[in-house]
């Protein structure tokens, strides 16, 4: 791989996707019609805003048609220090999109010397989803949630997207994926703007628990194997993933409550 | 028929080298050294926005002296090279040695084939994974593509001999404060003192975080050089 030096008029600037195109990395070929069992699907994620920032959570199941293809998939990722992205949809393109998105943000930051604004980051993700539209038309849609701590406004913000790249900022909470209807309803009913971080984590766990109860493609907590959802908070201090032991305790408490104990 | 004047290749190379060296000597110098937790780079730079020291990748930093637009162009090419390599292969496959070689190739090519050589000297620094810093690396690349693998400390820019002499030799295990005091003293010389506002300092520090590059801001620099 040689040193990418460009003439001034051909310079791709701080845009990493543009750099890849200029350097001959071909965009992924659009395949013919694929059946759902031919590729992996990831499902339910939620994002909730609270006083100190935002929380993102996602279940761990990936399916191929009616089969469970992975029990430990991760769908919530840090995008950079102060933002995160959660994915639902075709797993292959989604993970590739996250990887490119993370690189894009870091690349911009290094080339320009400053980080993108939160709106700028959301806009970048929007463009990536739009460029995936041909694949989405064949069933391989990627529908992420984007959330982060806006350093200029000093508050958490979250965004939903549709497959055309449409970007919709939500005020309090958002959900995506096949179990999003159930998870979203639980969050909606349990939400209040003055929730403590403890309450927010419990609400997210409960939302995913209910989604798993109703939707076959959403995985519930797996107490035998010790697999719990990925839950992360994004505040002024940055992205922080909640540890599994904490989640195990909270899940146990939720189960006790359900038993009426 | 017009005959072009014959100029001996030795003379051409010498003229170009003199030209590049003069350009580099006009700017201010910088010092990089290894300390107990990684590598520190200390540059004399009155601007707080036009940087001489920057991050290339997780464990790799870049520093340049000479003509700003030229070393900045090289810096961006380095970021692009590293990010594309990490994208195509894996993050751990991105290393300073191959980047230094790429820089050397480009600078060598420009030195012999272009109208004018680049008036820059650059440094590619990388911290390894060994806790004692045994595999930390400092690559010093000159305007003509010469690569020098430096050991403990290096000076880039004009007056390197005088600065190196004041800097002395560095032993392994120097603290950041100690190393920085010596670097600032060496850059300043006997007749002046350098304030934190006219210094640009950044470190590559071994630790838990993926991105090891960190800039030091004026209050922290002041505290370190006050001892």
Which consecutive residue ranges of chain B, at least 5 long each, have pLDDT under 50? none
Q: How do the strands line up in the largest sheet of chain A? A: 12-2-3-13-14
**Radius of gyration of chain A in whole Å, from Cα?**
19 Å
Please, how many helices of chain B?
Answer: 6
Helical amount of chain A: 25-40%
Q: Radius of gyration of chain B in whole Å, from Cα?
A: 18 Å
Shape of chain A: globular
Which class best fits the helix and strand makeup of chain B? alpha+beta
Average predicted local confidence, pLDDT of chain B: 94
* Overall geometric form of chain B: globular
* Distance between the first and last residues' Cα of chain A: 62 Å
Main sheet of chain A? 5 strands, antiparallel
Q: How many strand elements of chain B?
A: 10
> Using CB atoms under 8 Å apart, which protein chain pair has the greatest interface?
A-B, 18 and 22 residues
Strands across the major sheet of chain B, in which order? 8-1-2-9-10
List the helices and strands and how they pair.
The complex is a heterodimer of chains A (261) and B (227).
Chain A: H1 16-22, E1 41-42, E2 45-50, E3 53-58, E4 62-64, E5 67-70, E6 76-80, E7 83-86, E8 89-90, H2 91-112, H3 118-131, H4 133-137, E9 145-150, E10 155-161, E11 167-170, E12 173-176, H5 180-190, H6 197-214, E13 230-235, E14 238-241, H7 244-259
Antiparallel strand pairs in A: 1-4, 1-8, 2-3, 2-12, 3-13, 4-5, 6-7, 7-9, 9-10, 10-11, 13-14
Helix pairs in contact in A: 2-3, 5-6
Chain B: H1 9-26, E1 30-35, E2 38-44, E3 53-57, E4 60-66, H2 68-88, H3 96-113, E5 120-126, E6 137-141, E7 147-150, E8 153-156, H4 160-167, H5 176-188, E9 199-205, E10 213-216, H6 218-226
Helix pairs in contact in B: 4-5, 5-6
